Amino acid sequence: MKSADYQRLYDAVTRVAKQAYAPYSQFAVGAALLMKDGQIITGANVENASYGLSNCAERSALFTAYSLGYRQNDIIGMMIIGPTLGPVSPCGACRQVMAELINPDVEVVMTNWEKQDLVVKVKDLLPFRFAKDDLDGRKQV
Ligand code: THU
User: Could you tell me if the CB of 27 is within 6 A of ligand 1?
Assistant: First the structure.
């Protein structure tokens, strides 16, 4: 990723993480997507008193992008920040959603407030993921 793109994404994730609604976990996460058209789409985690209804930052960003009309081929990079000791790691649910909504070779920068980065491709975040082709190839039983 170009350093200018990295810096734009880092500014975006730090800004949006401050908008997280995380009164239960006190664990604010920010995610940002770099789009082919140069736009950056962000998302933060939004929690609920019924904890299981909370939405992670990654899915907030992706659902916003798709709601704006963007699709898989429009996303060229992603960054996630959390208040973690090392790079923040997306949960399993988010990995599943990322595997469908972002192209497999797109790089995801996982980071923290100390800029300790780990860069992993979407396809390596969730090996053996369940995908549309599993449904398309289903058998009648
Ligand atoms: N969370 C995220 O938003 N993204 C992650 O990658 C890890 C976890 C949120 C979910 C919940 O609101 C809080 O962080 C603690 O799990």
Answer: yes
